[in-house]
Design a protein that fits this description.
Number of strands: 2
Radius of gyration: 16 Å
Oligomer: single chain
Number of helices: 5
CATH superfamily of the largest domain: Winged helix-like DNA-binding domain superfamily/Winged helix DNA-binding domain
Largest sheet: 2 strands, antiparallel
Shape: globular
Structural class: mainly alpha
Mean pLDDT: 90
CATH architecture of the largest domain: Orthogonal Bundle
Length: 119
């Protein structure tokens, strides 16, 4: 599992870690039933504090994506539903567009243009 963080992202690190794990689940890199590496290992790989990773894992558990089992670690329960996954990605897209000075209307126009090209 390869997770990366954007050091220029203004969001708190625990949110970035949760987004990275959620994306890995959405993409199928981590499937339901798979166990995640220990929080300490994830923290080391990402260069963040283990408590940051634990907070992210708890947030994902609260969303119903992960399951904590004593003695067995953390495993993936299910994939996020498609609408929620797209909502998260759209929020990320709008955040990134704002960093480039683009508005939501600019993003909508871009998506409209792309969909017409693809049709």
């Amino acid at each position: 599992m390869l997770l990366t963080l954007d050091l220029n992202d203004p969001r708190p690190l625990h949110e970035q870690v949760a987004v990275a794990i959620r994306r890995a689940i959405e993409a199928g890199d981590i499937a339901p039933g798979d166990r995640l590496p220990p929080a300490r290992d994830l923290a080391h790989a990402l260069g963040v504090n283990a408590n940051t990773v634990l907070r992210s894992l708890r947030d994902l558990r609260d969303e119903g994506l992960l399951e904590f089992r004593r003695g067995r670690g953390v495993s993936v329960l299910r994939r996020p539903d498609g609408r929620a996954a797209l909502r998260t990605r759209a929020r990320d897209l709008l955040d990134e567009a704002a960093r480039y000075g683009l508005t939501a209307g600019d993003v909508v126009a871009l998506i409209t243009d792309l969909s017409e090209e693809m049709a």
